[in-house]
Design brief:
It is a single chain. The longest helix is centred in the C-terminal third of the chain and has 48 residues. Helices cover about 55% and strands about 15% of the residues. Helix 5 packs across helix 8, helix 8 packs across helix 9 and helix 20 crosses helix 21. Strand 27 and strand 28 form a beta hairpin. The N and C termini lie far apart (about 75 Å). The strands form eight sheets. It has a seven-stranded parallel beta sheet with strand order 8-9-7-10-18-6-19, with helices on both faces. Strands 20, 21, 22, 23, 24, 25 and 26 form a seven-stranded parallel beta sheet that branches.
Length: about 1100
């Protein structure tokens, strides 16, 4: 017994402890189930109403206090409101805590209700219940599963979902109850393929929807969100819970707002994130669609929260001179550079082969140095990769590398100086050498055209030049900074073009369709529509492929999915593979991964990896293995890592006359048909990793008898999750099956991380061409290499997320302030804080003159203390007295504004109130005239306090939006420019954090200054009632000029996963929905015509 097994026996492992914790809950559910099963259909539905009431009553006292406090806000002085809002926030947290406790209390009954509802639907073609208003509403909407007869509602057990007529046939089994408890507790349930994750989710979704605060079910594509909402929806609707799907409705529409108001809302991760951003660009509360983020269940959680987590969702708009980019201009230079490097790399490789074959030790050393240079020049060069797989060659090159890496790369320049640029494949970077700079500079007048100046040294010299005046020094500083910015962009463009030419290959990382560069998802092999590489890399690839280079855009709103999902009060998720990333999920989201046992034991046989020296030998062995399996009558699923490999294997199988189907990014339209046939006897399906996630391959009895589905992996992926996803296609629900991976020492993962030791073993054992090595020890070694890559990828992700966290902290502050302004409730409190901030800043001025100037410019008032007081009294005391004076003045101004407006508003309302709903009120700050739209009735009833609030809201929204846009642009530029800090041995992230704080402080000061300056000067020009104009209906934010995109961060080894999946997607003919004629009887059973009942507003 090993040490780990001994410790496990002594203390129990995590899986055992998890099950021990959940089992009492499942026992409670099973104990109450017989009672629930005895209830009639009406009693079962009444039980749901009873549970809703119990949950609502559990926090009734706190809710009452919140309403009372809200009622006191308007009568409380502005300065004292902050305390009330703090109490409200505290009580709202307490309500959520009380609800969580109440949900735990009713969990056994709620889960039993869902399970028994599923049983009743599976056993009865129809369920008859007493019709409620909700049933009548559903019938009137034309839902095909419910009809009204007199006072009865008849629910059928089949309905259209995802274009197919589904007959309900599922009932939860015990392990699914375990999964349901895990999800309710805010954890991740890892469940194997075919274990019914969609059904498991019905349990916690139903339970948490009883609070009325909303539950979001998040899927990876819109097909699944629409299908699952239709498939599971009737189960919830039977109990009076409303269900909708945001992907069925247009953004910013009333229908989408209604979808968010439903008890249960389905949607894709991207749309939830984009709706949050759109809400924070809204100019009226009517534009808002989302409510508080309460509880979300994320399907394929590892894909969304790990692979997709660092992908920013961006809403961008045009920028001035966005077309002025250097990519096409500099492309010929980079092509020259790459061509020269290719010649050099080929020459070095030829020299290396010649010298290494010699018997002279000195020649061999020279040869290995030439080989190392060839590797640094073009590591993906195929002849080089083949040569490195020969006996002892890679080991010799690695020894040479160690010599030059000694003492912190002290001698590395000797090896790399003869090259034009150096590629660091592991770090995903390309660096120009002096020789490369000379080549592209050519005969230019400026030899430093592509050299970044040492800006720190230049600025330091400038400071030491004593004979310059301040104006001259400033002008010179501006000139230096401009020169640096121009050169920085030029160097950046060259670097991105070099990456595009040397590290990104067409039909591997991307494809070109309809004149556009489209990214291929490395994990699923699908085309990711609308996704672009960030940081100019996409434009560089467009220039390389000679297609239109898209114009640069400016970010108006952005958030990463990681930060979006961290806003939820409670978050949980489900997937087939999260265990390997459990550390990251806990680290970032505090989500625990619980592995749920399968309903039936897994019968799949997972074989050891088969390792070959070269790719050629490996693919030959794969074809032979496929031949044997087809003869045995087994279906075969071959997983590949790229479009290129799937097409190559297809050609090899065609030569052997073996029938097969190919599924990849170019052919994924045929996906549904190919997947449906993949389980037939003798069928061969070649698929990029897209087949790995969510594909349900069903087997016939004869296939099961022949040994089930055979999975062949043609390469180990750098992430163990993707390999496990592929393996998981076989062995669903206890089916037989097998899986094996074929690996060669030339594969990317092996080449970069693992092949030297295995190559050494193969060399020592004298392996000849075509022979393979297969042992558990080798498989473990490969898994260790994968772990290394995963750790490295986590490090990269974490660092990138640290950049986003900086922006996220700023975004939270700005969006909170913006929401206060938009809703108007807490706007007064924010203005009080702004006045205090400006007063405190003015009092801190270096001298009395500056202090006086600040008071006049910003606060539009005389200094309320003398010069002597300014010099002698404490700043805190001065600030307090000045703040009180400023608040007094502000209240006088707002009261005066209301007094001037009221007589006019009163007269208009009393004489023409029936004509106008909203009116325009002109307000000026002495510089500009602002036409403020205000509701006439609200203005009249509040004695024009509403006019003042509308003015404050309008000014704040305008100032915040303009400042935030500017700040986002500066942060983008900062992120770009700090990367050069590494040349000065400084940490770019640290500089980014420090500089971004300064930018944020500047922005907040600017917002406070502008807002207070306008508000303190605001006044209404005296008007006659006949001059009042009607305001146009409130405009919605025009989103048409903005573009939504997911920026793909430029590491090709970490592209986002599982944008789509392939669970039984069937392309069905579009069915016409059942429609009701205007003069037909209303389906709700009221006896009225449809046009006089539920069709009134249509």
């Amino acid at each position: 017994m090993g040490f780990n097994e001994f410790i496990g026996k002594l203390f129990g492992n995590k899986a055992t402890r998890d099950m021990k914790e959940i089992k009492p809950w499942v026992d409670k559910i099973k104990a109450v189930y017989p009672e629930i099963a005895k209830l009639s259909n009406d009693e079962l539905r009444a039980k749901t109403v009873e549970l809703k009431k119990y949950i609502s009553d559990s926090a009734a006292e706190e809710q009452k206090k919140i309403e009372e406090l809200k009622g006191t806000i308007e009568t409380t002085e502005l300065e004292d409101r902050e305390g009330i809002f703090a109490q409200i926030d505290k009580l709202e947290k307490e309500v959520l805590e009380k609800y969580e406790k109440a949900l735990d209390d009713v969990l056994p009954q709620a889960f039993a209700i869902v399970k028994d509802t599923a049983r009743r639907f599976s056993e009865n073609p129809e369920l008859v219940v007493t019709a409620t208003d909700f049933d009548r509403e559903l019938a009137a909407q034309g839902k095909d599963f419910v009809r009204i007869e007199d006072d009865k509602a008849i629910w059928q057990n089949h309905w259209i979902a995802g274009g197919n007529d589904m007959v309900w046939s599922m009932v939860h089994y015990d392990v699914q109850l375990f999964g349901g408890v895990v999800l309710h507790k805010g954890k991740i349930a890892e469940m194997a393929t075919g274990e019914g994750k969609t059904l498991v989710a019905t349990l916690p979704v139903f339970l948490n929807a009883l609070t009325g605060n909303g539950v979001h079910v998040v899927t990876v594509n819109d097909y699944l969100s629409k299908r699952d909402s239709e498939w599971m929806g009737p189960l919830y609707m039977f109990h009076g819970l409303s269900v909708d799907c945001i992907d069925k409705h247009q953004p910013n529409s009333d229908a989408r707002r209604q979808a968010y108001l439903a008890d249960i809302t389905f949607g894709t991760n991207n749309e939830f994130g984009f709706d949050y951003l759109r809400d924070n660009m809204a100019i009226s509360p009517k534009d808002l669609v989302q409510r508080q983020h309460n509880y979300a269940i994320v399907d394929e959680v590892d894909s969304v929260l790990i692979d997709d987590a660092r992908t920013p969702l961006i809403i961008s708009g045009p920028v001035p001179k966005g077309e002025d980019q250097l990519f096409e201009q500099l492309r010929p230079l980079v092509e020259r550079l790459v061509e020269a490097q290719k010649k050099l790399a080929t020459q070095y490789l030829a020299d290396a082969k010649r010298l290494i074959a010699s018997n002279d030790k000195k020649d061999q050393e020279e040869g290995f140095l030439a080989l190392f240079r060839s590797h640094k020049a073009l590591p993906k060069n195929k002849p080089l990769i083949k040569y490195l797989s020969e006996q002892g060659i890679k080991a010799g090159m690695l020894k040479t590398e160690e010599i030059y890496m000694e003492q912190n790369n002290k001698r590395m320049h000797e090896a790399t100086d003869p090259l034009y640029f150096v590629i660091e494949e592991k770090l995903n970077s390309v660096d120009l050498t002096d020789k490369g700079v000379d080549l592209i500079t050519g005969n230019s007048e400026d030899p430093t055209l592509f050299v970044l100046p040492d800006i720190a040294a230049q600025l330091s010299e400038l400071e030491n030049e004593t004979q310059l005046t301040d104006e001259e020094r400033l002008a010179k500083k501006d000139e230096l900074m401009t020169n640096y910015a121009i050169k920085s962009e030029r160097v950046h463009t060259i670097n991105q073009l070099l990456k595009a030419y040397t590290m990104f290959e067409i039909n591997d990382e991307y494809v070109v369709l309809d004149g556009q560069v489209k990214i291929v998802d490395e994990q699923t092999g699908r085309i990711m529509e609308g996704r672009r590489y960030s940081d100019g890399l996409h434009q560089a690839i467009e220039a390389k492929e000679n297609v239109k280079v898209e114009a640069a855009t400016q970010t108006f709103a952005t958030i990463t999915l990681q930060n979006y999902f961290r806003m939820y009060h409670k978050l949980s998720g489900m997937t087939g593979t999260a265990e390997t990333e459990a550390g990251e999920l806990w680290d970032i989201y505090k989500l625990d991964v619980v592995v749920i046992p399968t309903n039936r034991p897994i019968a799949r046989k997972d074989m050891n990896d088969r390792v070959y020296k070269t790719k050629r030998e490996k693919y030959k062995a794969v074809i032979e293995e496929i031949e044997q399996l087809v003869q045995a009558g087994r279906p075969v699923l071959v997983g590949t890592t790229s479009v290129e490999i799937s097409e190559m294997l297809s050609k090899m199988l065609t030569m052997r006359k073996i029938e097969h189907n190919v599924l990849n990014a170019k052919l994924h339209q045929k996906e549904a048909d190919i997947v449906a046939k993949a389980g037939f006897s003798g069928t061969v399906t070649i698929a990029t990793n897209m087949a790995g996630r969510g594909t349900d391959i069903k087997l016939s009895p004869e296939v099961k008898a022949a040994g089930g589905l055979a999975i062949i992996g043609t390469e180990r992926h750098e992430s163990r999750r993707v390999d496990r996803q592929l393996r998981g296609r076989a062995g669903r629900q206890g089916d037989p099956g097998s899986s094996v991976f074929f690996v060669s020492l030339e594969d990317d993962l092996m080449r970069l991380f693992s092949s030297d030791r295995i190559a050494g073993v193969m060399d020592r054992l004298g392996f000849k061409e075509g022979e393979m090595i297969e042992h558990k020890m080798i498989s473990n070694s490969i898994e260790r290499a994968q772990k290394k890559v995963e750790e490295n990828n986590f490090g990269v992700r974490k660092r990138l997320l640290e950049y986003d966290d900086v922006m996220n902290k700023q975004r939270t502050v700005v969006y909170t302030k913006r929401r206060h302004a938009l809703m108007g409730e807490r706007i007064g409190m924010d203005i009080v804080n702004m006045i205090w901030d400006r007063v405190a800043a003015a009092v801190e001025a270096p001298d009395y003159e500056n202090c006086k100037m600040d008071f006049l410019q910003t606060l539009a008032m005389e200094v309320p203390f003398s010069e002597e007081q300014f010099r002698n009294e404490k700043k805190e005391k001065l600030a307090d007295s000045a703040f009180n004076a400023a608040m007094e003045l502000f209240k006088q101004k707002t009261d005066r504004m209301a007094q001037i407006a009221y007589p006019v508003i009163k007269q208009v309302y009393e004489t023409q109130g029936h004509m106008y709903e909203n009116i325009l009120i002109p307000i000026t700050d002495g510089k500009r005239m602002y036409n403020i739209s205000c509701n006439l009735k609200a203005a009249y009833e509040s004695q024009c306090k509403e006019v003042v609030k509308a003015f404050e809201k309008s000014i704040l929204l305008h100032v915040i939006d303009e400042s935030w846009k500017e700040n986002l642009r500066e942060l983008d530029e900062l992120k770009h420019s700090v990367q050069n800090a590494s040349y000065e041995q400084k940490d770019p992230l640290l500089i980014y954090k420090l500089e971004s704080v300064n930018l944020f402080d500047t922005m907040v000061n600017k917002i406070n200054n502008q807002t207070i300056s306008i508000l303190m000067r605001g006044q209404i020009p005296v008007q006659e009632p006949q001059e009042i104009r009607q305001a146009a209906p409130e405009q919605k934010q025009d989103m048409s000029k903005y573009r939504e995109q997911k920026a793909d961060l430029s590491d090709p080894n970490q592209q986002e996963a599982a944008q789509h999946d392939t669970r039984e997607v069937k392309r069905e003919p579009v069915r016409a929905e059942k429609t009701v004629g205007r003069n037909d009887p209303c389906p709700c059973g009221s006896g009225k015509k449809f046009k006089n009942c539920h069709g009134k507003n249509m």
